[in-house]
Amino acid sequence: MAETPGAVIDPNAKPAVDPNAAAVDPNAAPGNILDEAGKEAKAAEEAENKRLLETPDDKLEEADKTKKAALVEKNKAAEAEKAAKEGAPEKYEFTVPEGFVLNQKLVDKFTPLAKELKLPQASAQKLVDMYSAIKAEEATAQAQAFTKFVEDLKAETIKGLGADYKEQLAFAAKTRDRLMKPELVEKLNASGLSNDKDMIDHLITVGKAISEDAMPAGKPGSGAQKTVADILFPSAAKT
Q: Do residue 177 and residue 127 come from a single domain?
């Protein structure tokens, strides 16, 4: 039986290449186990630091609390060192939260001090942010206090006017709109005094006086019709 001839091998043929294989840079230096171990250790340390910083203290063990405190101090020191190296910029550019207006007078006073202390932009902005937060808290407290003040005035007025307070308030409102300029009404509203019982009682009294003094329709008056000034200032009218 004749033997089957062996396969012929092409000496110039190139080895097969896997198209899915990652490309290899022939000029790249080979890795070493020390670099790989260092990267892994650094990644593990960063993950642990992140866990400590993001976890509330009441959920940490005592040992972790100590580590976290040391880490916070280390970060502060690093930020301070970085700030000292950066120094103050040529010109500060500050931003404030939405709804706030940058107080240029305060900025002009703060800028020389910031430069003297060699505060970098980031550190100076942190102080501005803290100041804005304090002012926001103060504004909120003032708004809450004013709201309570107005609500207390309303409750006192309604109680004082009695069961028909709605009718009396409507009458006072008509008197106000008839006698007062819009600018004065705005001031009363801004101060909260539009809800004050003494103010409303005064408007009711004046409104009734004007109504009683009005000349009856179809009948001649007994004399010259009084003006609002005559009613409000009767002593001046007599002179």
A: no
